[in-house]
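Risk register update: the risk of archive-format incompatibility is retired. Evidence:
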Amino acid sequence: MISKFVAIIALVATAPDPLQVTMVGGETDEESDEIVSVPTSNETTHPRWCTLVKPEQSGKTQVMIRRILHEFTVPPSGKTPINFIFCANSLLLTKQTKKRVNKVEELGQCVEFSSQKKVAFTSSLEIMSMISHYNVTNIVCPSNSCRVGKRAVSKNIDDCDGVIGIIDKLIKSEPNKYTFTIWMDEADKFTKALVKLHDLYKRHINVSVWCITATSAKLFEKFGNQNIFKLQNTTSSNYHGWNDNHIRHCKKTYIHRLAQCKKRFTI
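Archived output:
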């Protein structure tokens, strides 16, 4: 069920000035975006680990694209930004997201890292080559353990495994060339993968992780403090929630009517 919601957050520190970002893809609404810390324990929050909370079907991907575009417009420390986008564990969503990102020319080339051999790259070495030699900056992939990967266990590049192994190897070979941002859609459903990504984030100062979700409770329970990406409007003016429907209660249920039809037309 899709519904509008209002999140009330107690701020314990003065938030930075809002960062104005131009909308991408023909949308007319503008939002003020900023990072605010929401502590839930005594742990120290870190701005490289952020959580984006919006209702389902309310434009989370659009916010992500705007943030990626901002990083390309103003690259941190002059390094090349590389984005790994996990699209739940769905090949269809992976394909759709790649198509949307490729529509924005300013974002550079986007490729797919999955098991679909005809349309995607299936090995970590292929992805490393596309980043190093063909200037690919955006990689979309499903959120399964094969694509998330694990830390490379040796200096042998053949041990490079998944996104984690790719990043470890690229940072080792060219530590000052790239910054890496990992986007995890439906993050609350993939906390096991996030534990691995959290270790990666702690190992490398040039790795950031964004958790995208409509329900953030599991993330607070698992990781404690979260840096919430604050949105002036969580939904656009044309967002249609459940309460926007015209709901009519019928005396006879659909199942009852279906049973009547079956009885009537049964010979």
